[in-house]
Specification:
Blueprint: H1 6-15, E1 20-30, E2 34-36, H2 40-47, E3 55-62, E4 64-69, E5 72-77, E6 81-83, E7 91-93, E8 101-102, E9 117-121, E10 126-135, E11 152-154, H3 159-174, H4 189-202, H5 208-215, H6 221-230, H7 238-244, H8 249-260, H9 264-282, H10 287-293, H11 299-310, H12 314-320
């Protein structure tokens, strides 16, 4: 077994990611405003025509906004980074009601010879959003495995927040509309930014410091993990998961313990809590709806399980956007 610092293992794994990409648009929206995203395939043909797929992301440089995928609305504030790991169609908007317009109606027709700049809205409070994309080569972004949520909203804190802000300011200075080398994202900036965001998110994932990224490549674990990640609310049994992995229950259990450090059902429970934590932190869903989403028949049962892990009730954790401070 690897006896190195487990947290360093996650850092090492993420450092090996190759996330090519660029910042391609920035926008100033004024309340009220809302838009529907362009189809990801269409955007990919414009931004990275040789890539199989792209992963869009947005950094909220100022203001507050929401992003909605499949009816679930998530909120983001200044400094937050929003990632759509699988390029799902989405709608974004501000705090006031507004007509939803098509994103492509807000920019000149491609191809773009300079970075598009959007000004849209009714003149109220300002939200400044910087948009980018990456071309991933990691199993984290495999739409079959769904190791990440459809919408990932990360709120960097402390030194990470200062780093994201400084990186964003630098990127905008280099890609300003009047800059001589306009349109060229600084080298490695997107990779560093998204690696930092992934590290902050995956630090809370079950067994992430043991072998999460390695597990996604394991031929036995990957099929089982794919189904857990896609449908955490299902009442999975070890037998069902083993059948999906074309494996025996014993072999599946051995792989879970060897790579992730926990048996299958314990991982399932931890993953459910991980999904619930994301939904509590960023979405509008009520506690009862989140409980059903992650496989609990009652809000009470979910609250007990959540409190065992976090030592506070879900509603308390949500109000504080995190666990209660140690005393």
């Amino acid at each position: 077994m690897d006896d190195r610092d487990p947290a360093a293992g996650l850092d090492d794994a993420l450092a090996q990611l190759r996330l090519q990409g660029a910042i391609f648009l920035h926008a100033q929206y004024t309340e009220g405003w809302a838009y529907r995203s362009a189809p990801n395939a269409d955007l990919g043909r414009v931004l990275a025509p040789h890539a199989r797929r792209i992963v869009p992301f947005h950094v909220v440089a100022a203001g507050r906004c929401w992003i909605e995928v499949d009816g679930d609305r998530h909120w983001a504030d200044e400094g937050d980074v929003i990632v759509l790991p699988y390029g799902d169609p989405h709608v974004m908007g501000g705090t006031e009601d507004a007509e939803v317009v098509e994103a492509l109606a807000l920019v000149p027709p491609p191809p773009w010879t300079s970075m598009p700049f959007i000004e849209h809205g009714r003149g109220g409070a300002l939200t400044h959003v910087v948009c980018g994309y990456l071309v991933p080569d990691s199993v984290l972004f495999d739409p079959e495995l769904r190791a990440l949520p459809k919408v990932l909203v990360v709120s960097p804190r402390g030194p990470a927040a200062h780093w994201v802000r400084a990186s964003l300011d630098y990127a905008l200075s280099q890609t300003a509309l009047d800059a001589p080398d306009h349109g060229a994202t600084p080298p490695h900036l997107v990779q560093q930014l998204l690696t930092e965001v992934l590290k902050l998110h995956l630090a809370e994932a079950p067994a992430s410091t043991v072998g999460f990224l390695r597990a996604l490549r394991d031929p036995v674990l990957a099929p089982a993990l794919a189904r857990i990640h896609r449908d955490p609310g299902h009442k999975w049994t070890v037998a069902e998961l083993a059948a999906l992995a074309c494996s025996s229950e014993t072999v599946l259990d051995e792989h879970f313990r060897a790579v992730l450090g926990v048996p299958p059902i314990r991982y399932l429970t931890a993953w459910r809590m991980h999904v619930a934590q994301d939904l509590l932190a960023t979405s509008d869903l009520g506690v009862a709806a989140i409980a059903r989403r992650v496989g609990y028949e009652s809000e009470e049962a979910f609250s007990r399980a959540f409190k065992r892990k976090h030592e506070v009730a879900p509603s308390h954790w949500r109000r504080g956007a995190g666990p209660a401070p140690a005393v």
